[in-house]
Amino acid sequence: MKITFHRVLVFSTALRVALIIYGEWQDSHMEVRYTDVDYLVFSDAAALVSMGDSPFKRTTYRYSPLLAFLLIPNVIFHPSWGKYLFSASDLLVGYLIRTILKLRGVPDDKCLYSVMAWLFNPFTFTIGTRGNCEPIVCAAILWIITCIMKGQMYRAAIWYGLIVHFRIYPIIYSLPIILVLDPLYIQSGQKPEIVKWSSHTGNATKLSDGIESRTLWTIVGSLFSRTRILFALISGSIFLTCTGVFYYLYGWEFLHEALLYHFTRTDPRHNFSIYFYHIYLHYQHDLSIAEKLISFLPQFTLQLVLINSFALDLPFCFLVQTVAFVAFNKAYSVRYQGCIMLISLVTLGIAYFGSTDFWSSGCGLTGNYSTIFRVVLLLATFGTAMEQDETEMGRIFLYFGLDGNSTSLANVGLPARI
Questions:
Q1: Do 107 and 350 form a contact (C-beta atoms < 8 A)?
Q2: What angle do CA 410, 128, 174 make, to 5 degrees?
Q3: Does residue 16 register a pLDDT over 80?
Q4: Tag placement on the chain: N or C end, fewer CB within 10 Å?
Q5: b/e map of 14-49 (b: 16 or more CB within 10 Å)?
């Protein structure tokens, strides 16, 4: 029987429905629950909203109230409504992966392999069925890429403003989006000239390469092109409107919990960050705002360098930005939202890498370097995942910190080599 996209999608849907049903059974019959603890937080917040209360009365709810409103059917219809919503978003990610790759001219067989790499990944299909909301963010970001590639800039702007309000971290993608709207690469009413799969040689075009021949006046003038201004105004208006409405409803508590908290967040327990051991040792002592914010400097610097190098290849630029963001973030765990976004963007990487031979040859590494890199990556990931439960019981913090550093080095090593 020939494997087709339709059959893959049908089987993936059945798998997710079966896992949601199984999860309900496990929750009621076993000590260890299948449902993500965050889903219980979402559901409690939705119940509060349905009664006219603030979702932030539920401790540890640090999301947009929009999420709580989306899950009101959990209270009215069925407690698993949110899981079906998140799983549907998960399936939509698979569909959008195929759409983007086809727009880039990737052959059908490679499109199908990429879709299967997402839909049949054990990590991704358990995320939505356990009740994690990140598939919604992944689907929105891929939909924005799709809209930009089709020349639907203002639709992309609406969704971008909405998703940045929903989860603040996609703000890192704003600069490459604005840069790719350069009049040099997109004319009024036309699609942007984003790099095609068939013409990609593995060396991305830097933005600086495209502007060397232009005068300073032309460069400054292009920064305020009609498309860029309207994109910024539309997305900014959507973000500010949503933020303003919820600030009116819930006040300062909303701003702190849903937005500002994430800029100074620290995690002294199950955290793979390179800053973990320092945070653990100093957790009893309040760090200054300057100390908390200075950790953003490596992230900020890397973002600028990567955007300058890869902005014209928007999907790949998002990928390497996410790698850098995750690797140097203060909070980084197996369930961390950036990891889920990273997986969805990796499946688009085939448009950059050109062929599966890249992977079979050791990701561009040869000889002993290929073997060493694979061993480091596997041991780092396996070690941190196995030790996460141990750290929650107060043990092996030093070893966990070392494993976290090795994971970060492995995450940085592959894109650096690419």
A1: no
A2: 60
A3: yes
A4: N
A5: eebeebbeebeeeeeeeeeebbbebbebbbbbbbbb
Where b means 16+ CB within 10 Å and e means fewer, 315-350 reads bbbbbbbbbbbbbbbbbbbebbbbbbbbbbbbbbbb
Of 91-95, 101-105, 191-195, 344-348, which gets the smallest average pLDDT?
Answer: 191-195
**What letter does residue 260 receive in the DSSP assignment?**
I
pLDDT surpassing 50 at residue 90 = yes
Cα–Cα distance for residue pair 157/143, rounded to 1 Å: 11
Query: What DSSP line would sit under 176-241, residue for residue?
Result: HHHHHT-TTT--TTS---PPPSTT--S-PPPHHHHHTTS-HHHHHHHHT-HHHHHHHHHHHHHHHH
Whole-number pLDDT of residue 123: 84
How far is the C-alpha of 80 from the C-alpha of 141, rounded, in Å?
A: 25
Q: Cβ(410)–Cβ(381) under 8 Å? A: yes
Q: Is residue 303 within 8 Å of residue 338, measured between CB atoms? A: no
> Rounded to the nearest 10 degrees, how much is the dihedral formed by the CA atoms of 324, 328, 332, 335?
0
Q: How far apart are CA 85 and CA 407, in angstroms?
A: 32
pTM score above 0.85: no
Alpha-carbon distance 2 to 117, whole Å?
17
pLDDT at residue 233 in the model: 95
Burial group, residue 392, by CB count within 10 angstroms (0-12, 13-18, 19+): exposed
pLDDT (0 to 100) of residue 339: 60
